[in-house]
């Protein structure tokens, strides 16, 4: 890995960590997701310093040609799994929203009916 | 069942300002003692205002949910909370005729079955829908018939009635999401021990406005439907265990 790429990884990882901390401060990112993104930032940081370690693991553990292959495969696998996880989360949220829509609609109609009854009794 | 069951007609509507008044007129003219409620799925037009002007209670979704199954969950919840014995789904687009309501309601009122579906294909009278849609309806009707053991021909028909047991199950007991109120609804009802039947009805073509069924939905409907059927079949044991009807 050349020096420019190493610097790019270091800057990217610090940028990610900075954005994550700012988002947590603004309450726009849940802590559980913040942890995940900080880990991604640290992973990018590790690419600059642990290049030889990844190359060793790739060759001796997975039998891959180089460390970069291991990194690509790991990142693509992670993104696929994460995408699937997010899809399930979106589905759960959509289901909850549907239930809330029904619940609020019926409750609102009941409140309106009670108000009407109260007004009629008051007159 | 008591002598005079409490009946609710739930009119489903989304952007039906051009049809809703005629639909409610039809229901009011043929009213034999039922209550009416309009379930408005977050319309952008004057649907809810027109319905209220006609003296009909309106249950409005704060946003458009984009599917009829959400509206179905709303009317089940409404019917359950207000203690109705029979619930009838009626489309707000003018396709259904109030004069045929007795046909839909009577089998439930007499305790014969828990769900009655009005089928336009039993006597093949009136509006029969479009060719491609008929193929899809026929395919799912056959699948559902095989699973439920009841001859079904028009599983997507929105002209239906439900018993108190079904109202209680979907308005109170069932906590999961209903993805469609056709196959999934019918299969769940079957698995929890509900009986169903079809009666012949005549439908009209949509009286105005535009249908929710666009080209994309026509393409994805069969695939989505098959996944839903498969999901229901996998849940058979769980549903039978949770049954309140059995």
The rough form of chain B would be described as globular
The secondary-structure element order of chain A is: HHHH
Label the structural class of chain B.
alpha/beta
The percent range for strand residues of chain B is: 5-15%
Oligomer: heterodimer
Poorly predicted segments of chain A? none
CATH level 4 superfamily of chain B = Spore Coat Polysaccharide Biosynthesis Protein SpsA, Chain A
Number of DSSP helical runs of chain B: 9
The domain tally of chain B reads 1
Using DSSP, what is the number of strands of chain A?
0
How would you characterize the overall build of this protein?
Chain A has four helices and no strands. In chain A, helix 1 (3-25) runs antiparallel to helix 2 and helix 3 (51-60) crosses helix 4 (67-122). With 123 residues, chain A is an all-alpha fold. Chain A is elongated. Chain A has helices spanning 3-25, 31-49, 51-60, 67-122. Chain B is an alpha/beta fold and 246 residues long. Chain B has a seven-stranded mixed sheet with strand order 3-2-1-4-6-5-7, with helices on both faces. Helix content of chain B is 42%, strand content 14%. In chain B, helix 7 (183-191) runs parallel beside helix 8. The radius of gyration of chain B is 17 Å and the shape is globular. Chain B has a single domain (7-242), classed as Spore Coat Polysaccharide Biosynthesis Protein SpsA, Chain A (Alpha-Beta Complex). The two termini of chain B are 17 Å apart. The longest helix of chain B is centred in the C-terminal third of the chain and has 20 residues, at 215-234.
Quick rundown:
Chain A has helices at about 5-25, 30-50, 50-60, 65-120.
List keywords for this structure.
A: 123 residues, mainly alpha, 88% helix, elongated, B: 246 residues, Spore Coat Polysaccharide Biosynthesis Protein SpsA, Chain A, 7 strands, 14% strand
Ordered list of secondary-structure elements with their pairings:
The complex is a heterodimer of chains A (123) and B (246).
Chain A: H1 3-25, H2 31-49, H3 51-60, H4 67-122
Helix pairs in contact in A: 1-2, 3-4
Chain B: E1 7-13, H1 20-29, E2 35-40, H2 47-53, E3 58-60, H3 68-81, E4 86-91, H4 101-109, E5 115-119, H5 131-148, E6 160-162, H6 164-173, H7 183-191, E7 196-200, H8 215-234, H9 236-242
Parallel strand pairs in B: 1-2, 1-4, 2-3, 5-7
Antiparallel strand pairs in B: 4-6, 5-6
